[in-house]
Design goal:
Layout lengths: L3 E7 L6 H17 L4 E3 L13 H7 L6 H13 L2 E9 L5 E8 L5 E6 L7 H4 L9 E4 L2 E7 L7 H8 L4 E5 L6 H14 L2 E5 L2 E3 L6 H8 L7 E3 L3 E3 L5 E4 L6 E7 L43 E6 L5 H6 L4 E3 L11 H11 L6 E8 L2 E8 L2 E7 L20 E4 L2 E5 L8 H9 L4 E5 L5 H15 L2 E6 L2 E6 L22 E5 L3 E6 L8 E3 L2 E2 L23
Parallel strand pairs: 1-2, 2-3, 7-8, 8-9, 15-16, 16-17, 21-22, 22-23
Antiparallel strand pairs: 1-14, 3-4, 4-5, 6-7, 9-12, 10-11, 12-13, 15-26, 17-18, 18-19, 20-21, 23-24, 24-25, 27-28
Helix pairs in contact: 1-3, 6-11, 10-11
């Protein structure tokens, strides 16, 4: 398979369906003129996603064989291109879904993917999908499709990648600037695939209603425009091409889909071969309400680089202190590590976390002044520990501390979005991560997204520093914000640990609020029924 030119096109749409069709066809023509063989249009390209009621939504939705989609199919055939459109689709059973449709170079419909996770008011008048979308084999690679809110959490893109997708096509209708800076590129990096993401520009709401809606939300009207920055992202998370923040654009890049078949990290670990689907079963089970009570509103935590800094951090008031993995050395006696940490924590209420060689396992240890509180072995195999770590944990424990519920993520388990999803499902408020990152995306994109998509405070320490990721109170747009809205919705506050001791506050109580918008719970609203591939049998050779 040779290089493929792909395009993500961004433009504005309004309430006039005929005008919107004209814009779609014109932008497909522009992308084809630049040589694109795969063209992705934004979400809701048939009409603004604003409806008075269900009848209004159905009245303006596309029919499968109606003039809007027939014209898109014909234009795909005219250019011998694959075109992905996303529209509201009127179904024969009375439902109206948000559907991505891929048309092939002869105009044939190759696949349809119905949006599984609706955002905010979309849930008032539209219907979520009921099944996973297909992975479509084409001459230009194996393509998977998703839309906007489905990419704000890991489940749907991960399901597509596990089923073999090499290129993920994402259509967006978003005013959130954290889409382009975080949620879009992380899906490429964590899955080792290409992502082609097309977002809107211009008003996303009827202009006549925009001032009143903006006032009610406490958001400047201009920040409710589509955020643009459509982009094409490589499997390592680097952006190959990106559009502007405003204005129409055709974003093109030449990609090699086969790069997505090479998942190996620099240390030799293949994170897909090492997945343990049996452990991820809770992700595919029916969500339940969050059962845990709120944690403390604020607690100080610390990232330290070496054991001799633990006492200093504890005396500074940190209640949680996270060291890098194997901070005492590979050959350190586990009992001696516990004793040294307990001594450093004497006469404090702090807890410290690092990892040790515990027999044939690599395990995170949680220690306080009284000694070992608990441990959790690493769940996944990693090549850099293969000479001695041959035993793996069987579940994720959550420890109840005075200020909240803490999960431990050990070493290379930090690579797996499933592990943090399990922590959120188990009602953790915070996660301690002693690890050794090997690629830039792990700290630039991976850990911030684990905090954002699960509403988890994350405290991570590595040999060259780490991160303290605190959940902000300003999160749900349907409630008043304490500070001004600047465009980001689902993104933690980031403190980068660049000193030997870095202390910052996290907010355990904020983990209770998972409503990113009306009707949309990041964890409780996950599409558990449609991501069964996440818990399918492990690949041959992976630990069971």
């Amino acid at each position: 398979m040779g290089p493929v030119r792909v395009a993500a096109v961004q433009f504005a749409v309004g309430l006039d369906v005929a005008d919107n069709l004209g814009t779609c066809l014109r932008m497909v023509d522009r992308a084809a003129a630049e040589g694109a063989s795969v063209i992705v249009l934004p979400e809701f390209c048939n009409r603004l996603s604003w409806h008075e009621d269900r009848d209004d939504a159905r009245r303006h939705a596309c029919a499968p064989d109606g003039p809007f989609l027939t014209a898109i199919a014909a234009r795909a055939a005219a250019h011998r291109a694959h075109v992905k459109a996303n529209v509201t689709l009127a179904r024969g059973d009375g439902r109206v879904t948000v559907s991505s449709l891929l048309y092939g170079p002869d105009g044939t419909l190759l696949g349809r993917s119905d949006k599984l996770t609706l955002m905010g008011a979309e849930g008032d008048h539209l219907d979520p999908g009921t099944a996973a979308g297909p992975v479509i084999a084409t001459p230009h690679g194996r393509l998977g499709m998703y839309a906007c809110m489905e990419g704000v959490t890991s489940d749907v893109p991960r399901d597509l990648a596990v089923r073999g997708a090499q290129v993920l096509l994402n259509s967006l209708n978003s005013f959130a600037t954290d889409e382009a800076s975080l949620h879009v590129p992380v899906r490429a990096a964590e899955n080792g695939v290409w992502v082609v993401a097309a977002n809107k520009v211009g008003p996303l709401l009827p202009t006549a209603l925009l001032p009143a809606i903006a006032e009610r939300l406490g958001v400047p009207p201009e920040l409710l425009d589509g955020a643009g920055e459509s982009q094409i992202v490589a499997p390592d998370g680097t952006v190959a091409a990106k559009g502007p923040r405003t204005g129409e654009a055709v974003v093109v890049a030449d990609i090699d889909p086969s790069r997505a078949d090479r998942k190996t990290r620099p240390d030799g670990t293949d994170p897909f071969a090492a997945r343990r689907p049996r452990l991820y079963a809770p992700i595919t089970e029916t969500p339940r309400p969050r059962a845990a009570p709120p944690g403390e509103e604020k607690v100080d935590v610390a990232v330290v680089r070496s054991p001799d800094q633990v006492r200093r951090a504890a005396r500074a008031g940190a209640e949680l202190i996270v060291l890098p993995e194997l901070a005492f050395g590979l050959d350190a006696d586990a009992g001696a590590v516990v004793e040294e940490l307990a001594t450093a924590l004497h006469r404090t209420t702090a807890h410290a976390v690092t990892s040790v060689r515990a027999g044939a396992a690599h395990a995170a240890y949680l220690v306080n002044a009284d000694g070992l509180v608990g441990s959790r072995p690493q769940l996944h195999a990693s090549a850099r520990h293969s000479g001695w770590a041959t035993e793996y944990g069987e579940r994720l424990e959550v420890f109840v501390l005075p200020w909240g519920r803490l999960a431990l993520v050990t070493g290379d388990d930090a690579l797996y979005p499933e592990v943090f999803r399990l922590a959120a499902i188990a009602d953790a408020d915070a996660v301690a991560v002693p690890f050794t990152p090997a690629q830039d995306w792990e700290t630039a994109l991976g850990l911030p997204e684990r905090a954002a998509e699960n509403r988890l405070n994350v405290v991570a320490s590595g040999p060259d520093g780490g991160l303290i990721l605190a959940l902000p109170a300003d999160f749900t747009l349907w409630t008043p914000w304490q500070g001004p809205f600047e465009g980001r919705i689902s993104h933690p506050r980031v403190t980068r640990a660049t000193e030997p001791v870095t202390v910052a506050a996290i907010h355990p109580a904020q983990a209770v609020n998972r409503l990113v918008s009306k009707n949309t719970d990041l964890v409780g609203g996950r599409p558990a029924h449609a991501v069964a591939a996440l818990a399918d049998d492990a690949p041959s050779g992976a630990p069971r």
